[in-house]
Fold this sequence. Notes:
By secondary structure, this protein is mostly helical. The protein has helices at residues 2-31, 33-53, 57-71, 76-93, 96-112, 116-124, 133-153, 164-179, 187-198, 202-215, 221-237, 240-256, 264-275, 278-295, 298-454, 458-466, 469-489, 493-498, 517-526, 532-539, 543-555, 561-569. The protein contains 22 helices and no strands.
Amino acid sequence: MAFLAFxxxxxxxxxxxxxxxxxxxxxxxxxxxxEFQIAKELRIHQCRTKLLKATTPEAQYMxxxxxxxxxFVFESDSALHLLQxxxxxxxxxxxxxxxxxxxxEKSFIYTATGMLTKAEASLDQVETQILDxxxxxNYYEQRSFLYSHRVQYEGAKDGDWNNRYQVLKVSYRDSIxxxxxxxxPLYLWNAGWLAHDLSxxxxxxxxxxxxxxxxxxxxxxxxxxxxxxxxxxxxKKGDEYHKIYYxxxxxxxxxxxxxxxxxxxxxxxxxxxxxxxxxxxxxxSSYCFKQAQLYKNRIRILDMMLVMDKIYHSxxxxxxxxxxxxxxxxxxxxxxxxxxxxxxxYVIWLVRRLIKRRRQLKESNVQLTEHVQELSKTRKRLTExxxxxxxxxxxxxxxxxQLKALKQKQEETLLQLQESNYVKEEYIGYVFAxxxxxxxxxxxxxxxxxRKITAGQLTELKQLTDTPSSxxxxxxxxxxxxxxIFLNVYPNFxxxxxALLRPEEQIAPREGELLNTDLRIYALVRLGINDSVKxxxxxxxxxxxxxxxxxxxxxxxIVPKEDFAKxxxxxxxxxxxxx
Length: 579
């Protein structure tokens, strides 16, 4: 029976060691709190600068939304203030969709800070009949978020279907599942909560969530949410090790992004307290209490005070027990010291006897010592020679590696220079040709105007300058030149660009066109012109038209919207074999 129990015991010890390593890594993450805070404040400063530069109401609204994304789980008062300013702006502009969006996001702040009545009032003001799918999903999510807090503050147990808020919470989760596409970033998050609340399909959800969480960098709030629900599903299965593992992963992600609406670390703290790990529970409770104060979460502050009081009493009881053990150890140490003194006296007596015998052996050892010294010198010389050879070998290897690295770097630099020169040569040739063509047209136009003035045909000249058809013709020809030049330098741009869009949203120019307006906008983005105002000047249209077209295209993308412009800017890179 002992041999059969041995593997299970070893496995348990290994898991405990892994848990200690994970907690140690989390402790180091907490020590870097100030570093993460500085990075957060830098991002906030950048968003504020962008807001100050916004000139149009639409740009101000979007800049405040970007700043709100930095504040909403970091500083509740600032986040709420930004939402109120945006809501006032949306009301003046008559944008009911923006007003609804602000009300939904206000409900999150109210719920997170414990003002549940205000949160429900905000959600009741939302006009659900005009919401698009994405906003409706967010509305359902906030409803479920609100009712989950209602369940928590009423003290209802998990899975208590007699509680109406529990029923409403799961009902709204189910509504999300009915309209949420599988490609949505929080699709698995919602499906995981449904499996958790209904205690159904947990075994199918865990592998899907693990695949996403294990592959993530744990640097976003979505990463923290995915790891948290995975920990809760393992809790349902009674798997303590994986529950702690993914709670730690979620907490580390929350700490990195300065999320003060932190649930994973609180759950981890309570679980560790129940396991008897008072030190970690005390450390994490102090951090969570400070975050709740900074976020001004009134309900959580009260809950944390109750938990911290229990942890403090347990901490004090453990210290008292340690003090009692220390007193006992002091008495035992005194007795041991007395025994040691007696033993020391006996040892001194033995040492004196040994000294007499060693004197007799000393003479016989002298000759042996001389031989040993000679051997030691010889060995030392051999060792020095070996060390020199080893050192030279290491230096030779390092030199070879440096030469290889230098050669590779030179090849990469040459490749980049060749690509740059190729593109420059293409552009210079085309630009010179266009300039020459337009100089010739201007000269011909000058001669024609001169002839009509000389002939006194001023009326015909005025009619000629009043019509914009020539300008439109020149613009059409200019765009044709631009399309030809661009596609000559980046011949695969259209196919590469369409590869970033959903199949049903592919863009194809009409017959007789090389590029259409949408493709020209992103062709300019590929050339490094990312400012919508400059693009609008180039295309002779309004900045709002450019902004709307870019937003429409990003909504068709299969890649993350925030990375779309960067990915387009990297399209059409030349490969080495094409240079």
